[in-house]
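I have been asked to look over a protein record a colleague put together. This is what I was given:
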Amino acid sequence: MKISNIDLGEKPVMLAPMEDVTDTSFRLICREQGADMTYSEFVSADALIRNIAATTRKLHIDERERPTAIQIYGREVEPMVEAAKIVAEAHPDILDINFGCPVKKVAGKGAGAGMLRDIPRMLEITRAVVRAVDIPVTVKTRLGWDANSKIITTLAEQLQDCGIAALTVHGRTRSQMYTGEADWTEIARIKDNPRFTIPLIGNGDIRGGADAEAAFSRYGVDGVMIGRAAIGAPWIFRSVRTFLDTGIGMEPSVAEKFALLRRQIAESMANIGNEMKGILHIRRHLAASPLFKGIADFRPVRIAMLRADTAAELYSILDKVQNEILI
């Protein structure tokens, strides 16, 4: 699959953009584990043009993680164009437009998935951003606003006509948020349109190699994107890639998984420059990690792990859990 001149190989698997998750360190780990491409956290166009430090930091790219995309969101044409130009100066491989984030603070203000209620403006923003930069522009969106407005088949062609280089579709409506099951049949209908010719990336409920293979073989997408299943489990990309390439599901060892979690903790503290803030940042990964699922009587340990406020305490808890699993 190619996005413009960027060759991602056959059946590429990508890390989805996620706020407070896909920082530079996590993206690099996922690339090392087999992700074919990564996406930044959401970058607010309004905050970017105001030069807010916390936002501009999101533009940092480690050369080892390429190819990578920076994703922006906003609801007005001019700020989105200005932000796109700023992003282009950071030299990502791709600029992605977020028309899919369902959270209230984004969609409720008309940005992200909120644009699904104002298609003319969505298309106007897309055309303007494509014209404003020289790098490939892609879009990530959802099926529609709600069950009564699944417009993605028509919308996909409209977005293509704006000049985007690829389209990612999350198989849920905005109203669904992240509940229920992703509807891949709706994603497949986009590929049934002979006028739709750009790469299509499917997103939603890819939890392992079999899910990814079904997305390619049953629904005909050109690439798949993994989001929530990667939180606290960057090794999922190695597992999925191995399954797609060999048909065999292979999991890293328990020791390897714990080593990756420890690395995430260490790099979070180093990148933020503060032990406590680094630990707070990584708690979302620890809370979501499948590594701890199924452990008997784990609740007290989980609480202690998520309350730990020093690296020494946190590493000590992880050591005990790892030793118990390996006994």
Notes: Residues 184 and 310 are 43 Å apart (CA to CA). The domain at 2-245 is CATH 3.20.20.70 (TIM Barrel). The radius of gyration is 20 Å. The chain is about 45% helix and 15% strand.
